Amino acid sequence: METHLLRKIPAQPLSPEAFRPFGQVIVASDDHTPFGGADAQLQLQNGIPRFYIMRLHQRGRKFHQITRHQRCTQCLGSLGGKEWLLGVAPPDATALTAWEQIVVFCIPGNCFIKLEVGTWHAGPYFDDSCIDFYNLELSDTNLVDYDTCNLLEHYGVEFEIV
């Protein structure tokens, strides 16, 4: 029987400063506020943008896969004010080093996050039985821009969010 390392990883609170290496935290702004740096800085020019609501069912708090998209930014947020968790690693990391740099954020339901192009991510994870998320990416992101690394197979590591 093969053994693997189960690495327990705490979820840290989300802040714009802590999340900056991975993307942006977007919070509410007043209507008529001019476009600026607090708005999501999107890169969707490589295809047809797709904005949709995806329904996810609870999958526990363990993960052993991490994915990145190298053709576009991705925005995620929960509907209904639900809190959720996301593991991330820097966009410039290779699959080899990504697992060693993973951090997990607890994302409140009153904001959304924008992942930079190439940011490794695992999740969303949550404790509710089901949460709907809005997702902005390209129409073919999950077909042609889905670079996934199985951390268990390649490095013998699995994560558990605590």
UniProtKB/TrEMBL annotation:
GO molecular function: ureidoglycolate hydrolase activity; ureidoglycolate lyase activity
Alphabetic keyword roster: Hydrolase, Lyase, Purine metabolism
Catalytic activity, reaction form: (S)-ureidoglycolate = urea + glyoxylate
Pfam families with a match to the protein in the record: Ureidogly_lyase
Keyword match Nuclease: no
InterPro entries: RmlC_Cupin_sf, Ureidogly_lyase, Ureidoglycolate_lyase_dom_sf
Keyword Hydrolase part of the UniProt annotation: yes
GO BP annotations listed: allantoin catabolic process; purine nucleobase metabolic process
Subunit structure: Homodimer.
Protein name: Ureidoglycolate hydrolase
Taxonomic lineage: Bacteria, Bacillati, Cyanobacteriota, Cyanophyceae, Leptolyngbyales
